[in-house]
Specification:
Blueprint: E1 4-5, E2 11-12, E3 25-30, E4 33-38, E5 54-55, E6 69-70
Antiparallel strand pairs: 1-2, 3-4, 5-6
Amino acid sequence: MTRMYFPNGGMLDDELNNADISDGKATVRLGTKTYDVKVKSKGEDCLDNVVKATQCKGRTKKGKRCKNETGDASGKCHWHR
């Protein structure tokens, strides 16, 4: 079984069963979107270069920590930038 993992934590396997990945690459169309897939070797992290979301460093008017998540380099969500 072939699986495709997305940076947001999602996973897909059903639609990939017919994909030809013999050369280590494939193009998969899901609905209206098309994805170019590169097969990584076992043990290689496919999310190495993906910015992972963290909790916003901003504070609410009441002084509580913002609960939004952000991948922005500032560490703040769109409300606190």
